[in-house]
Amino acid sequence: MTKKQKKVLIRIIIAAVLIAALKLLFHFVTVNKYIELVAFLVPYFVIGYDILKKAIHGIFNGEVFDENFLMAIATVGAIALGEYVEGTAVMLFYQIGELFQSYAVGKSRKNITSLMDIRPDYANIEEDGKIEQVDPDDVEIGTIIIVKPGEKIPLDGVVLTGESTLNTAALTGESRPRTVRPGDEVISGCVNADAVLRIRTTKLYGESTVAKILDLVENSSLKKAPVEN
Fold this sequence. Notes:
The chain is of the alpha+beta class. It is 50% helix and 15% strand. A six-stranded antiparallel beta sheet has the order 2-1-3-9-4-7, with no helix packed on it. The chain has a three-stranded antiparallel beta sheet with strand order 6-5-8, with no helix packed on it.
């Protein structure tokens, strides 16, 4: 949980305690409705001041009909009608929902960050008896690449020599290693676990499995319709 989420959680707890305490108090003690209004405005502003601020900011920027504006209208309307508990509680429940959503989005971002670890940094090719590291983008189809133990397979291809196990968890979620032998097809992003593999590439990096996955992840938000955003 981030620092911002912790602050929201603290506000939720404070507002919930205040609402419960005031509800209980006014159940046994009869007071003037204006005193009750002022009392319930305290938890209302504790939990909803940021929503009201965003709603006002949206109005001045021409973005009126968003969730903040609708929540402000709904809760202020309820309070204006004398439903102080309901108006404050609606704002409270909305903030609880926003906190859960923020937490879920944060978890998704962490998963995406871990997914980015599958991006290969280089490819090993052999030239004049020496192994040289090159950018995967510069490797052509049919090039022989060498993948050492502990390295990621940078491009899709077919195993020419070597027998090893591959860790495919980052791509498939499968925790059990996969054994590959000469003639087997391998996909980029897998981690070579045991022995040196010589692989003939069958795709350019831009068309490889790992590149397509990363492209989908990185550009997914750009493919949403304006209404969906």
